[in-house]
Specification:
With 247 residues, the protein is of the alpha+beta class. It contains 11 helices and 8 strands. The protein has 2 domains: 98 residues, 2-Layer Sandwich (Alpha-Beta Plaits), CATH 3.30.70; 114 residues. The site of one iron/sulfur cluster (SF4) has 13 residues, from helix 3. Keywords: 4Fe-4S, Iron, Iron-sulfur, Metal-binding.
């Protein structure tokens, strides 16, 4: 099993600044180079280039999501993927209701395949995670709806298991890092965040650094980690499968 490497908050901040600078200096030419970026996508999304080709930017998936977590890729992040759906977990988490898939008229989001119940994978930001940087927080582990996706190590620090995690984002939404550490104004990120599996694979192969892994939830695409095969999300399509319904 591949272990997702935890990343540093300082890397997160540096990468964010670098991205802004990239766009500022290179303009559209710079963002065009990000055509192969791998974003966190709604359930059932075709792989990067396929989704970009099949999505007509109608935004019906955005309108259908009851939690408002589906948002369009901003122009500053990719000219090619501009307007296609990505996920903003700060607004909520995905319970795999599949309303976005039902609303999609083009098949860019569709049933079938492992992506139907896999959006990405959570990674721990060690410098921002209270448990890793200090001690005493197990909120993400307690709130994760998928048994086995987060375990605690011998020092009660969260460890994500990518073969169980489906990228639902509940851990990121409930992470109290910023409020628990409000005394430190430099801490503004979550201690655990969801990124695409392609981003994690690109990081593992060395084609992107830790600094880039977390930038805007996208990175240059590498060969993606396989979606999880073991996690069972209680509200998602798995529940239907478990009950003997349609696969
Ligand atoms: S499956 Fe439901 S909760 Fe998840 S992104 Fe789609 S509409 Fe939103
Ligand atoms: S509903 Fe389908 S075609 Fe429309 S923006 Fe969403 S993914 Fe693209
Ligand atoms: S993204 Fe969802 S399944 Fe994965 S660790 Fe977080 S809460 Fe658990």
């Amino acid at each position: 099993m591949m272990r997702v490497e935890e990343i540093s908050r300082r890397g997160f901040l540096a990468a964010g600044a670098a991205s802004v600078a990239l766009v500022g200096v290179g303009g559209f030419g710079a963002v065009t180079k990000q055509a192969d970026a791998a974003f966190v996508r709604p359930p059932g999304a075709a792989s990067g280039a396929e989704l970009v080709a099949s999505c007509d930017r109608c935004q019906k998936c955005l309108q259908a999501c009851p939690y408002g977590i589906v948002t369009p890729v901003p122009l500053a992040e990719s000219l090619v993927a501009y307007g296609t759906p990505t996920i903003a977990y700060e607004h909520g988490f995905c319970d795999f209701c599949m309303k976005c898939v039902d609303a999609c008229p083009t098949g860019a989001l569709a049933y079938g395949g492992l992506a139907e119940r896999d959006m990405g994978v959570a990674v721990v930001v060690r410098d921002a995670c209270v448990a890793w940087d200090w001690a005493g927080c197990t909120v993400c582990k307690e709130e994760c709806p998928v048994e086995g996706a987060i375990t605690l190590d011998e020092q009660d620090r969260p460890v994500v298991h990518p073969d169980y995690c489906d990228g639902c984002g509940k851990c990121e939404q409930v992470c109290p890092s910023a409020s628990l550490r409000a005394y430190d104004a430099s801490v503004e990120n979550k201690g655990i965040v969801v990124v695409s599996r392609a981003s994690v694979a690109a990081h593992a192969s060395g084609s992107i650094g830790s600094e880039e892994l977390q930038t805007g939830r996208f990175a240059r695409a590498g060969e993606a980690l396989a979606p999880h095969t073991k996690g069972v999300h209680p509200d998602g399509p798995d529940a239907t499968r478990e009950a003997g319904g349609a696969a």
